[in-house]
Amino acid sequence: MESKTLYGPPMRTINEQAEFSELNLAAYVTGGCMVDMQVMRNGTKVVRSFKPDFVLIRQHAYSMALGEDFRSLIIGLQYGGIHAVNSLYSIYNFCSKPWVFSQLIKIFNSLGPEKFPLVEQTFFPSHKQMISMTIRNSRVAL
To answer: How far apart are the first and last CA of the chain?
Structure first.
């Protein structure tokens, strides 16, 4: 904890750092949210509750690994109107690789393959469509 002068009288600023897995939150219609943080620091469990003014997110909010879906925390921060250094909208959008790739396709179509080369991919809504399209488009010689 340290005090800094930020365009006016000195203010006490507190910086907290934690992984998504160490956080829980409740967001309110009236604005803001309360965050509960439970972390291990030097072998000691530290539990804190605080109301953030803004956040900087440096972790992916979604992974296909078991227990690695933290999109609800991003939604909670957005719901609570918490400001972020990096946009919560962009962090949420980056949770879906096909969504991100579709944005790259827009750039590809606007600039062309010479200025913005893109690896060709095919999107299927689920594995079932992928299998049926593969069978339909393949020819088997007997």
So the answer is: 75
Distance of alpha carbon 40 from the chain centroid: 23
Query: Residues with Cβ < 8 Å from 29, sequence gap 6 or more?
Result: none
**Where exactly are the structural domains of the chain?**
1-95, 96-142
| Interval 53-110: pLDDT, tens | 999 999 999 988 888 999 999 999 999 999 999 999 999 999 999 999 999 999 999 9
pTM: 0.74
Tally Cβ neighbours within 10 Å of residue 31: 10
Spatial separation of the C-alpha atoms in residues 114 and 12, rounded to whole Å? 52
Q: What CATH number is given for 1-95 in this structure?
A: 3.40.50.20
Scored b (16 or more CB within 10 A) or e, 80-119 reads bebebeeebeebbebbeeeeeeeeeeeeeeeeeeeeeeee
